[in-house]
Amino acid sequence: MSPPLAPPGWSRWLVPPAALSVHLAIGQAYAWSVFKPPLESALHLDGTQSALPFQLAIVMLGLSAAFGGTLVERNGPRWAMTVALVCFSSGFLISALGAQTKQYWLIVLGYGFVGGIGLGIGYISPVSTLIKWFPDRPGMATGIAIMGFGGGALIASPWSAQMLASFGSDHSGIALAFLVHGLTYAVFMTLGVLLVRVPRPQEPAETGPSAADGVQVSARSAVRTPQFWCLWVVLCANVTAGIGILEKAAPMITDFFADSSTPVSASAAAGFVALLSAANMAGRIGWSSASDRIGRKNIYRLYLGVGALMYLLIALFGDSAKPLFVLCALVILSFYGGGFATVPAYLKDLFGTYQVGAIHGRLLTAWSTAGVLGPLIVNWIADRQEAAGKHGPALYGLSFAIMIGLLVVGFAANELVRPVHARHHVSAPREAADAQRQQPA
Amino acid sequence: MPSDSSPPSLPRSRPRPTGGTPAGLIVLAWLWVAAPLAYGVYELVQKARQLFTG
């Protein structure tokens, strides 16, 4: 499939909603927990089993983004969005069949494996295209799309819960809910498939520098550079630090103020979790847009340096003032979201637009690693501290110290980022030949 | 070529250039994604209020 070239006069402001229609849909993955309790009671599963589809989906997200990135670059965003639509929606339809027939393995296969491929391809599908349309504001452009991934859970969580309340939480109700999800997301994502266009290579954007003027590095060469691995460490540290709060947000705020005069109720803790989601989403668009003005390296100095400071403040004074605890946690979560959204623009600065989508896909393995590392650190340490008879803030002190250490390592890795050596650059004739090959016949 | 809007020099009565983007399409595309997002944000705000009232 040839990448869909934009006709003359095509507005670039159609590309962000195209990207959002995909990211808002696939962001549903973070709302999987809504289906867990009904699945557990309807199919007699334990908590570990009911988490399997989500875990497999996240693994497949990382794998398909890493290995499918080059295909996405070669075939273009419309092909990628179509694959994402088919896989993500099919995942729900297969899951509907699994729920109706009480075959849980079909739900794992459908939502986890097939749907997970849709997540990975869908996540990277608009990144390269957005950067090419907005060479003057790449941080803002990718921030809009990646904010959508955060926003997807905000939509799906209440929507799925209401659907289950209407259809019932037995296996037929769950099957019907999966069916409606699959069909609705297919229609919703169609907008992206229909609207996405790539700018004509010979006609650079009116504003900002031409993408072809800068450094261009292939995905194969990029993974051999120290810059790629420095950014890998930066992303991994930043995501791990965010997950450190996200993973146990509700019990954490409850534990911190359990012995105070104003203990935190369960509903207030749920409100705290919701506020963290808002900070995560706002950070994606806000900080990423700010990076266009203050620079990518500087914004990561902020995420990692101030992030470590926020953790230190929580560890030292968090239990003495609830507003301070909440404020620091919100800042950390905004940096978590910002880190995700800014990294494509950072990659574009270092490696150019040539195969930035494929490079981004490979870098997302840092996310998968952090997704395992973050919860592991926080949960394991909290369990050990509890077994040792500790309670309240003491359960989290060691976790916070580790998070601060990780952020300092990430800060150092960011400082080591330098422009890519010329030996890794792609020659102009090869890039031109590739661009020519992508032109429709 | 990427463009932020229609060429300003063209009079309103003149036909739009071939391949130009109708403003209605841009509005529709943004509404398509903004409407569900607004619903999600509304539900989030309702829940977040519990931190201060719960």
UniProtKB/TrEMBL annotation, chain A:
Its main location: membrane. InterPro entries: MFS, MFS_dom, MFS_trans_sf, Proton-linked_MCT. It comes from the Bacteria. The keyword Protease does not apply. Keywords: Membrane, Transmembrane, Transmembrane helix. It is found in: Cell membrane. This is MFS transporter. It comes from Streptomyces cellostaticus.
